[in-house]
Amino acid sequence: MANYFKGIPNLDYPSLLNDRQGSSDTVRVKNLFRRVVVRDDYFTKFVNFTKYKIIGDDRPDITSEDVYGTPDLDWLILTANNIIDIKNEWPMTEFDLNLYLNQKYTPQQLAQIHHYETIEFRDFDNQLIIQGGLSVDENFTVQYLRGGQIRRVSPIKSVSYFEYELNRNDEKRNINVVSKEFVPVVIKDFENIMKYGQSSQFVTTDLKKTENIRITG
């Protein structure tokens, strides 16, 4: 993430430090409110992205190393998936997941049924009758026609709280990554987005001043 923060422009912010010399003193800080996002039109072109599955306890920097050959594009991995809160939006490590489960549930609660969901079911002609993974109640049934007769089946399974939490964490492993050949375009956009335009607070393209409310005219 170091390269990402390096690209964030600066603010001359009124100093709140106890050792400031006067009300006009400022400190230079990163403008963390200025956040880069991948342009919406990029998502309409599937060639710009590829599917990727996060393996094991891999962090964003390790994923970046695997995809791009460098850990420095971890910010691009996160940005392409609109991930802001890594703790909650990136898959937990096995250790963290176990810690989370032990804090949230008792062993008895983990074994209890969280919900029921369908199992994919096809008839003898391989026609899809019901897709799998749909949340349903425990009395769910589906009808289909076979040999001129209506048949009723209940293709469901129970999902425990443990399975539910494990599946929810695993779903976070499926992400999109920017295609290698498209990375320079995204980085160029990032650099342009981060530049300041002309305004009353403009100093340079990577620095602007903020209003000092301690100074009155």
Protein model, in words:
The structure is a single chain. This protein is α+β, with helices and mostly antiparallel strands and 217 residues long. It is built from nine helices and 13 strands. The chain has helices spanning 2-7, 40-43, 60-68, 74-80, 86-89, 94-104, 107-111, 161-171, 183-194, and strands at residues 10-14, 26-30, 49-53, 113-118, 121-122, 128-130, 135-136, 142-146, 149-153, 156-160, 174-178, 202-204, 207-209. The strands form five sheets. A four-stranded mixed sheet has the order 2-1-13-12, with no helix packed on it. A three-stranded antiparallel sheet has the order 7-4-10. A two-stranded antiparallel ribbon has the order 3-11.
pLDDT under 50 segments (min length 5)?
none
Rg from alpha-carbon coordinates = 26 Å
Q: How many individual β-strands?
A: 13
Order of helices and strands: HEEHEHHHHHEEEEEEEHEHEE
SS strand fraction = 15-25%
In one word, what is the shape? elongated
Separate helix tally: 9
Distance between the ends = 41 Å
Strand order, largest beta sheet = 2-1-13-12
Largest sheet: 4 strands, mixed
Helix content bin: 25-40%
Mean pLDDT: 82
Number of domains: 2
SSE-based structural type? alpha+beta
